[in-house]
Amino acid sequence: MSEIRVRNPVIAKLQHATALRAEDRAVLEALTAQAIELPAHAELVREGDCPPHVHVVLSGFACRYKTLPDGGRQIMAWLTPGDFCDLHVAVLGAMDHAVATLSPSRLALLPRNGMEEITDRHPALARAFWWATLVDAAILREWLVNLGRRPGEQRIAHLFCELLARLRATGLAEDGEMDFPLTQADLADTVGLSAVHVNRIVQDLREAGLIKWRSGRLRILDVAGLESLAGFNPSYLHLLR
């Protein structure tokens, strides 16, 4: 499958779910036309909130996370351009986790109360939104396997491979290179390891000639080698179109 290159990352992502007609794309363009810009580490939604909007990432990185009583943070999802931060809130109401930016980001705000009307009038968008929710669940299952069964080096390698596949799908990665504005502390909170351990693993991956990570950019120098190390199979991302 060739990379999809369109200006709007939401359309680029959802075209993997179903064939979008011109009117479907026009609706998505209108929904994402108004956006807000936020700095890194801005809190979008707190656990327990009932936000009036569904947030969609247009640029930058955000995350879903939970904070433990001792102040520790577990990141449960990386949200990249084209991703819905809280699509399920249109059905479930109160949030059971928090959402924050990881880098300076631009986000569209979709009216929560209007989501049902949109899906009723545009069946292809209803299917695409449902697909996005199911893919989020599939990614979460893979992350559970990552945390529970893979050693540290494989955890990080697998996340890098996943991110490359996801950003390629929206035309935001080329020749194995992509934006990666996270800190090693963010990565540690994602893989459940100490920052010291993460630093050591990243150095090992660099010395093995597998990656180059510098100034907010990540380049996978040997994609096949990193995928082999991680045991990466992208089928759970369901990028079939």
TrEMBL record:
Record-linked SUPFAM superfamilies: cAMP-binding domain-like, Winged helix' DNA-binding domain
InterPro entries: cNMP-bd_dom, cNMP-bd_dom_sf, Env_Response_Regulators, HTH_CRP, RmlC-like_jellyroll, WH-like_DNA-bd_sf, WH_DNA-bd_sf
One MF term in the entry's GO annotations: DNA binding
Gene3D superfamilies per the UniProt record, alphabetical: Jelly Rolls, Winged helix-like DNA-binding domain superfamily/Winged helix DNA-binding domain
Annotated GO CC locations: cytosol
Top-level taxonomic group: Bacteria
Secretion signal span: none
Any Pfam family: cNMP_binding
Entry keywords, A to Z: DNA-binding, Transcription, Transcription regulation
Protein name as catalogued: Crp/Fnr family transcriptional regulator
